[in-house]
Write a structure and sequence with these properties.
alpha+beta, seven-stranded antiparallel beta sheet, 4 helices, about 30% helix, globular
Length: about 150
């Protein structure tokens, strides 16, 4: 088993139309305005940005996210990640009842040397940290959609 490899999947059910949710999620440069764990998004060009994020663990991760798919018809946003994490992240949205089901998937390998050294003992903490960040994101996105 590669202890530095992670697959995450989060499902958010939100009380807003898929188009409204997609419109917020596709504006990644605005994430720091509504998602406090996303500390910074610095655009490098129209398809690439550097992201700095930190949740409960007092340790920041920095990644470069390069958009690989933006499909407003299929409601999919996908990016290739490099930097402290290497891999991919994807948002997939679908109508669900009167609102939207959002599925976030991330398949990454930790590259940062310190986190690789802590891979075995730190794995439960890293997973919990990710879960807390995603829970905060869902709550804050829900609030943002109510304000839009």
């Amino acid at each position: 088993m590669n202890w530095s490899h992670y697959r995450f999947r989060s499902v958010w059910d939100l009380p807003a139309a898929p188009g409204a949710v997609y419109a917020v999620l596709e504006r990644h440069e605005e994430y720091p305005h509504w998602w406090p764990e996303v500390r910074e998004m610095v655009p490098l060009d129209e398809r690439t940005a550097t992201a700095r994020f930190r949740a409960l663990i007092p340790y920041e991760l920095v990644v470069t996210a390069r958009e690989t798919r933006r499909d407003p018809v299929a409601l999919v946003l996908e990016a290739a990640l490099s930097g402290d994490l290497e891999g991919m992240a994807r948002w997939t949205l679908s109508a669900h009842g009167a609102g939207t089901r959002v599925v976030y998937e991330q398949d990454v390998e930790v590259v940062r040397p310190l986190l690789r050294r802590l891979a075995v003992p730190g794995r439960p903490l890293f997973r919990a940290n990710h879960a807390l960040m995603m829970r905060s994101g869902r709550r804050r996105l829900r609030r943002r959609l109510g304000a839009v």
